[in-house]
Amino acid sequence: QVRVAEYGNVKSQLGAINRKQTGSLAVRDLSNLIKPEDMVTSEHLVTLLSIVPKYSQKDWLSSYESLDTFVVPRSSKKLYEDNEYALYTVTLFAKVVDNFKVHAREKGFQIRDFEYSPEAQESRKQELEKLLQDQEVMRTSLLQWCYASYSEVFSSWMHFSAVRVFVESILRYGLPARFLSVVLAPSTKSEKKVRNILEGLCGNANSSYWRSEDDVGMAAGLGGETESH
């Protein structure tokens, strides 16, 4: 359980990262879509990232310059497009960023907060590589452990099953222990036929225990998950 939990935790972290990288532009990580030359940052100017609905791109291009008086003309550039949205940049004076966001939201455009950082991008890349490596190491270790343990677990299970059959037989038929314990392995299609044969062999009141049509079978088996007749 510990090994499975550790492996599942790593898989969950990778799944979260993959969702961020493959989701829509409204929620996904944008760092791998942005290049340094796409962002303008100076004492007075900043570049914002706008998420524009795919079918509203003409509206964006015709209106973004008028959303505030301090927007740099013709500064918007499309960087990426998916099935729902398009990603645009826009450059403007830092002092009007808040007003621009409000006016953009009123028009149905989402301004994503983003700060380009090569260090952070490299850190996320290294984190992803480490998680992928950890996942493979844990998966290999878990599989090897399962292969090595399966024989022992299965043998133990058969041992418990044999003990249980013996005890059930003593409780049902009494002492001395004059009965035969056997293993039958019919195909799935032959199971009902085998039960009918066993029912005929019993030839007494106990024959009803072989029937599968009713619920005379006992809920049993290891862990209570297997039918017993």
Helix content: 40-55%
Quaternary structure = single chain
How big is the Rg?
Answer: 34 Å
CATH topology of the largest domain: Alpha-Beta Plaits
Describe the structure.
This protein is of the alpha+beta class and 229 residues long. The protein folds into two domains: 1-32 and 126-175, subunit c (vma5p) of the yeast v-atpase, domain 2; 33-116, Alpha-Beta Plaits (2-Layer Sandwich). It is built from five helices and six strands; from the N terminus they run αβαββαβααββ. Helix 1 (2-22) crosses helix 4 (118-173). The longest helix has 56 residues, at 118-173. The chain is elongated and about 100 Å long. It starts with a helix and ends with a strand. The model is unreliable at 215-223 (pLDDT under 50). It comes from Aegilops tauschii subsp. strangulata (Goatgrass). One of its GO terms (cellular component) is vacuolar proton-transporting V-type ATPase, V1 domain. Belongs to the V-ATPase C subunit family. One of its GO terms (molecular function) is proton-transporting ATPase activity, rotational mechanism. V-ATPase is a heteromultimeric enzyme composed of a peripheral catalytic V1 complex (components A to H) attached to an integral membrane V0 proton pore complex.
